[in-house]
Amino acid sequence: MDKEQFLAERQRGLGGSDAASVLGLSPWGSPMSVYKQKVYGPGTELDNEYVYWGRKLESVIRDVYTEKTGNAVTVPPLLVHPEYPFLIGHVDGMVVDDDGKQIGMIEIKTANISKRDDWGDPGTDQIPKHYMIQIQHYLGLTDVPWCDACVLIGGNDYRTYRILRNQKLIDAIYAKEVEFWRTHVEPQNPPEIDGSAASNDVLVRIYPRAAGERESWPEIDELARKLRDTQTAITALSDEADRLKNLIKEQMGPIAKVIGPDYSFTWAEAKGRQTIDSKRLKEEMPDVAEKYTKVGEPTRVLRPYWKKGASDE
What we know:
- The protein is α+β, with helices and mostly antiparallel strands.
- About 45% of the residues lie in helices and about 15% in strands.
- It has two domains: about 5-205, Lambda Exonuclease, Chain A; about 220-270.
């Protein structure tokens, strides 16, 4: 399946990789990011080196699984829940017996070496919770009792974990997903606003243009006060962090690295930053500058302005 077909199918419903985000348990997504993808289409968040290499290595890891276990694996088409057609799944593989009957499932992952400790001993079910949710979502779309989670960590550490079907967990996951789809996606009613880029993108899509002005009202006055106080606190903490960093540099002096009981510091030479003198480029080679200048889509930007002394009131 090519990337475009995969993304088109993914947008038609909630897949396993959406489940943890809907439940608020994903390190990469949130209910708002899922809402944005389903209502407005996927963005560049699904395009990065980790996703690229994960796709490239999928068939390799699948072959390794078969070599190590002797289990035959087939790749099924998109799975769709019989009662809730918006619950879907792109399963990495179904394990079949000699008669072609499905007896299990596999889910394939790649992980950075820094994530090694997130995975337990091979053969157990100790995997990151967002992957557990994803796998149970997939198991609910099948009749098989288990899934082997296959992970390649750091490019050379292959492991397999046996995950058993947990119907109570599947039912709980599906209940949340059905509620999310019917409450938010179908009526295009965004979930609660948060601080994510996805929330900003959705708000810009809902309110793309701006005109006019008016006097403030109590609700926005209260939000303004909270924003001002938060930004003031952030500035103070940032200044204090910078001061502490300089004190640490003073203590280190010529030492390149200090190793503490639960921390380490390095203060080493770094290459000078390379930048393009855009002003000079525009003056001396305007055609080249124009050719390689990218113009983004127009958008709305919130810029707070505080009256002098307002933070002291």
